[in-house]
Design brief:
The protein is of the alpha+beta class. It is built from 18 helices and 10 strands.
């Protein structure tokens, strides 16, 4: 150290010697003693205190002539709440990498922290006058200051009221993250509605969110089980241009046609009235195959769709701060003709090939065989043959061991469907029938004209003379107007299964659907068969649309079925 003299030279000053510890631990040398008296502060001395303010330039403060009393700040409940929220983070920290992005491990931890903090702050509202900007990649509460948090929550309060104002895009993504995690929503459907509403409103200010939200909307339908299909959602909001060829999960026919080796939609037979016939029949056949396969411990879908072992891992809401907080059940989600997502053991896998080659062969045979049988049924001029050799032999053998034949299952299903779809069903309104009979009797009475002074002579009945006039004939009662031999004829016309069904209903069996399912027949088919024969013999139905017996026929039915 030195001082600068007037002649331009530095003059060195000796620095007092520092204490040094000797080998025995004592001081080897002592510095020169200072004059203690010179350090005494006199009461009338004037001294300065530097108070540092929140100045943006480090090291710059303001000078005051005398010390100032430091007052304790007023209690801030909002700041205390923020401190509680920050405390949920814990002591664990992951640093940013050099690229400026957060690695996967860090993002997973931050997502978990964000979800806990978001749930903690889900009902908080604010009214802060300042608007402090914020910018961050993967924004979340922990990296925001006091003023930024208050700015965000004030803005979010207005958004939830429907007032979406322009703000930092990081705030917008933070709100979207909350919706993706279903925070601040009543249900997944409510979360989706709020996401769509916010997207449509905020993209006017900044459309950079478009490419992210469009992907996350699709992920939303995969992750959350919504009451509608993705195809319905796309059509409702006019997003077909952004989501090409979405599959309707309720339309298995179109989906299976896209996967099948044989597409019946390209057939000349697929035209006119045959379109509905083929579509409905194919759905009936697939339903029958699923039921038969399941009853015998065979998974129909596993022989159709691509195996999850050949698919890649899929993470929902990529590029978002999302915490996988819901336990997912095993399921298969077909989003388009080129997208299939399979969830197993709470993990998702993704594939662009819907059906394995063996599955495409199986679907091709089912579709071609169904068309072939329908062509024969309607007496189409051109015949079609289906080759079962393309179906995997392992499946054929598995069915054979169960005593089943794939060809016979399809044939029986098509035959049953065509018979039921083409039969004529006559339904009689009993109330209308009684009214018609009453009106006919009234008309008959009016047509009888007697001459003046002429006494009315009743017609002689084939059963013998009678003195009863038309006015004395009582109106039709609720009792059926059929003879006992009519019920005997109906009994002989009913099949053993139909008679058994009537006995079951009389015995208190209310679930005729269960009765029919156990015997491999549709309840509608069973009920219509009984009513059709009843109309032929007694002129009325026995069962209503709910498969309940009409009360006025219970006695006759009891006698008929014993």
């Amino acid at each position: 150290m030195g001082v600068y003299s007037t002649d331009g030279k530095y003059i060195s000053l000796k620095i007092s010697e520092r204490q040094r510890d000797g080998a025995d631990g004592t001081s080897a040398a002592s510095p020169r003693k200072a004059d203690v008296s010179a350090c005494v502060v006199k009461s009338d001395d004037l001294f300065y205190e530097i108070e540092y303010d929140s100045c943006p330039i480090p090291g710059v403060g303001k000078f005051v002539l005398k010390p100032q009393t430091i007052t304790r700040p007023e209690k801030d409940e909002i700041r205390d709440l923020f401190d509680q929220m920050r405390g949920l983070c814990g002591a664990r920290r992951f640093p940013y990498d050099r690229s400026g992005y957060i690695d996967v491990k860090t993002r997973h931890y931050n997502a978990a922290v964000f979800y806990k903090q978001a749930v903690f702050m889900k009902d908080f509202t604010d009214d802060y006058a300042e608007k402090i900007p914020f910018s961050s990649y993967y924004p979340y509460y922990q990296m925001m200051g006091y003023e930024q948090l208050r700015t965000y929550f004030t803005w979010r309060t207005q958004v939830r009221k429907g007032n979406v104002a322009d703000t930092s895009v990081s705030y917008a993504f933070l709100y979207i993250y909350e919706l993706l995690n279903n925070v601040g929503t009543d249900s997944p459907q409510d979360g989706l509605d709020k996401l769509m509403s916010f997207w449509n409103a905020f993209r006017v200010y900044n459309n950079t969110i478009d490419r992210y939200v469009l992907r996350w909307l699709k992920d939303y339908h995969i992750y959350y089980q919504l009451p509608h299909s993705f195809n319905e959602f796309v059509n409702k909001h006019g997003l077909a241009g952004y989501c090409p060829k979405p599959a309707d999960l309720n339309d298995s026919f179109s989906l299976f046609c896209a996967m099948s080796k044989y597409d019946v939609r390209k057939s000349a037979f697929f035209a006119g009235d045959n379109v509905k016939l083929i579509t409905d029949c194919f759905g009936f056949v697939i339903g029958r195959l699923r039921r038969v396969f399941d009853d015998n411990g065979i998974s129909f879908d596993e022989h159709i769709y691509q195996s999850e072992k050949k698919m890649s891992e899929w993470t929902p809401f990529k590029d978002a701060l999302f915490y996988h907080h819901l336990e997912q059940g095993d399921r298969r989600v077909v989003l388009s003709e080129n997208e299939i997502y399979i969830c197993k053991n709470n993990k998702f896998s993704f594939g662009k090939v819907l059906a394995a080659d063996c599955g495409r062969q199986l679907l091709g045979y089912i579709m071609k065989q169904t068309e072939s049988l329908l062509r024969k049924a309607v007496k189409y001029k051109y015949r079609l043959s289906a080759d079962i050799s393309g179906v995997p032999g392992a499946l054929i053998e598995k069915l054979r061991k169960k005593g089943l034949s794939l060809e016979k299952i399809i044939c029986d299903a098509v035959s049953e469907f065509y018979k039921e779809s083409t039969k004529t069903i006559v339904r009689v309104d009993r109330a209308a029938l009684i009214k018609i009979r009453q009106e006919a009797l009234a008309t008959q009475e009016k047509l009888i004209v007697t001459e003046p002074g002429e006494q009315f002579a009743p017609a002689i009945s084939p059963l013998g003379p009678t003195s009863t006039s038309l006015r004395d004939i009582p109106p039709p009662s609720d009792e059926p107007l059929s003879a006992p031999d009519v019920w005997e004829s109906l009994k002989n016309a009913l099949t053993s299964l139909e008679t058994e069904a009537l006995s079951a209903v009389l015995g208190g069996e209310t679930e005729i659907k269960k009765f029919a399912d156990e015997r491999g027949i549709m309840p509608e088919v069973l009920a219509d068969g009984i009513n059709e024969k009843a109309v032929d013999y007694i002129g009325d139905s026995l069962l209503d649309d709910q498969f309940v017996l009409y009360g006025e026929y219970i006695d006759q039915i009891t006698k008929m079925v014993g």
